[in-house]
Structure prediction request, 201 residues.
Amino acid sequence: MSLWITRKACEAYGTISGAFRSQPAMSFGLFIVLLLVVYIHICLWNGSISQGEYATAMGTIVLGIATFILVLAQRTSNRMQFRPAVSAGIEIDWDKNRMFFVVANHGRGLAKNVRVHCTPPLVNQANTRIEDSQPFSGGYSLLAPGVKKTLNLGKAGWYIFSGGKLPRRYEMKVTYMDSDGVTYEHEYVEDLTMYEKAEFE
Prediction:
């Protein structure tokens, strides 16, 4: 009986540790709870404790688990409220006929290790690949809330009315981490064909 309980506890810990892989402290806390449950069941099975003592011990554990869940929910809520939210894409200044590539943190938390990948690669107006320029080369180690990084690509009309010489569709992928080390990834699509009817000076 005790071996069966231990085996089930180990299987449960494997599931929990996978779910909380990015939060080892929480995984370890749940592992301790599982050990206590196993120990109490073994004590009940071999007669070391009475049914009343068993009920009291299990009630205490249930209360502890409920408290743990509340703390976890609060932590998750705080993370969602104060997490970073980084976007990347093309912006056009219609008055000046300029096109920009913009990376911005719209969230309320600090973004770390921000990386942007563009497929196919963007080129500037001199027909030079811009992969060696930030944010494509090294990205940004830190991007504070409300910060906006802008890269001037050149005249918007040169991109939009290229006569098929330039790609019309770009796939953007942004990856970054929050202060707790949780990684986020977003994908965007920029389709320049929607601007073909625009008029520039």
Q: What stands out?
A: The radius of gyration is 27 Å. The chain has two domains: 2-81, 86-195. The longest strand covers residues 111-119.
